[in-house]
């Protein structure tokens, strides 16, 4: 098959490329009131191995609990994903329903129930409409195709305004490896594992330990660096499946150049998907990178970045295109830098704050070179970078976020109506 022509300047293919050993199908089972696609199945070959990371929300959804259990028992052969209902907050009935969906899929394919990992997304606290899933499963399975990524990506979205799916070709020690992934997420997005649903597959030959390590690292550098509204979902999950179909030696050493090349490609692909989630944030009009430089450690940098990225006052100023730099300064000041017993005192006179390339704050106050016109020119842009230079160390970290608009309130106020 010819490679998709749509390609970003980072090498990301914005149309999905099929992965050998992975088949996807989707159908409209009636879980969504709109009648849109809402049930997806991913089938993987027997040689495949899967890694996963899940939400740390104490009220983890039933499919998260069941998926963790099944993953600990065997390598999965199927992923079953529904949108339109989260199957969260449903107690023991929710767990029984999640198990039942796996049994139904297993029976259809002549496989045990624990070969299926279930995933759900949608409204919390409503019972799963089991009759619709049971009736829809045969149609989703009949739709299985190696080219089914786009339909599956449509089926897993909720308030997303578009499906998020992409591919990347990576050179791993002279061998061509493919990665394709899809993700959903638009609201209830904040790092505490993955902050959405994401499913990535590769044809690489990579052992389980390296696969687990690569996914954790990539999630920490992508989905754990985005925030829309500060709310971590009950249903967050991200999987990485390697089908071992590529013509290459096995990658089994995390210190090898081959592993580092694979991990780098995975980070690039997952960062692209994470950025798409931010760009499609509920009601979002801005894509904002909050970059904290020269901190003592990563924890300190992320502490500051999240204080700015989560500030409702900063986010509403961004929506209004208002260069109200005092809100950024205040957020940095309350982030708690220097409060740890092992951390150096916080010298505010050393801090520099930039809006794009415009210096806002220096020596504890408004930079003498700053003009409102220069700040306004940056604020009028769709993509904005806020840089905070702490001058305390050598570590830098970046968090990506969006603004808060009228539409964010409207979307979430009307979510169940």
Task: Tag the structure with descriptive keywords.
single chain; 417 residues; alpha+beta; seven-stranded mixed beta sheet; five-stranded mixed beta sheet; 11 helices; 16 strands; 32% helix; 24% strand; disordered N terminus
Quaternary structure annotation: single chain
| First and last CA, distance | 44 Å
Q: Provide the helix percentage.
A: 25-40%
Number of helices: 11
Q: What string, H for helix and E for strand, traces the elements in order? A: EEEHEHEHHEEEHEEHEHHHEEEHEEH
* Strand tally: 16
What is the average of the pLDDT values? 91
Unreliable stretches covering 5 or more consecutive residues: 1-5
Strand order of the largest sheet: 9-16-11-15-12-13-14
* Biggest sheet statistics: 7 strands, mixed
Radius of gyration equals 22 Å
Overall 3D shape: globular
């Amino acid at each position: 098959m010819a490679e998709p022509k749509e390609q970003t300047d980072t090498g990301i293919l914005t149309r999905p490329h099929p992965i050998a050993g992975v088949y996807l199908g989707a159908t409209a089972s009636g879980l969504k009131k709109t009648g849109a696609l809402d049930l997806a199945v991913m089938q993987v070959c027997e040689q495949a191995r899967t890694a996963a990371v899940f939400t740390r929300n104490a009220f983890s959804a039933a499919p998260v609990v069941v998926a963790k259990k099944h993953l600990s028992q065997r390598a999965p052969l199927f992923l079953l994903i529904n949108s339109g209902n989260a199957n969260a907050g449903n107690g023991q009935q929710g767990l029984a329903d999640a198990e039942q969906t796996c049994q139904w899929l297993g029976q259809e394919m002549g496989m045990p129930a624990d070969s299926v990992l279930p995933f759900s997304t949608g409204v919390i606290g409503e019972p799963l409409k089991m009759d619709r899933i049971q009736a829809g499963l045969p149609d989703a399975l009949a739709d299985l195709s190696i080219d089914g990524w786009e339909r599956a990506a449509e089926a897993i979205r909720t308030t997303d305004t578009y499906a998020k799916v992409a591919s990347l070709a990576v050179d791993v020690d002279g061998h061509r490896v493919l990665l394709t992934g899809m993700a959903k997420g638009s609201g209830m997005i904040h790092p505490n594992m993955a902050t959405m649903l994401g499913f990535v597959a590769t044809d690489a030959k990579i052992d389980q330990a390296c696969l687990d390590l690569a996914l954790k690292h990539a999630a920490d550098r992508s989905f754990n660096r985005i925030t829309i509204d500060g709310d971590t979902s009950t249903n967050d999950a991200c999987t990485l499946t390697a089908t071992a179909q590529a013509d290459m030696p096995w990658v089994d050493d995390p210190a090898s150049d081959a592993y580092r090349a694979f991990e780098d490609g995975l980070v690039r692909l997952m960062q692209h998907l994470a950025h798409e989630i931010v760009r499609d944030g509920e009601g979002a009009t801005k894509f904002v990178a909050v970059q904290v430089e020269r901190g003592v450690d990563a924890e300190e940098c992320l502490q500051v970045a999240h204080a700015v990225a989560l500030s409702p006052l900063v986010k509403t100023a961004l929506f209004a295109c208002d260069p109200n730099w005092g809100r950024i300064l205040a957020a940095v000041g309350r982030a708690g830098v220097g409060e740890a017993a092992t951390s150096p005192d916080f010298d505010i006179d050393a801090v520099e704050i930039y809006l794009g390339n415009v210096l806002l704050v220096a020596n504890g106050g408004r930079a003498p070179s700053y003009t409102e016109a220069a700040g306004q020119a940056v604020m009028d842009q769709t993509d904005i970078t806020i840089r905070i230079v702490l001058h305390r160390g050598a570590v830098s970290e970046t968090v990506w976020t969006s603004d808060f608009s009228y539409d964010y309130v409207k979307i979430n106020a009307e979510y169940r109506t």
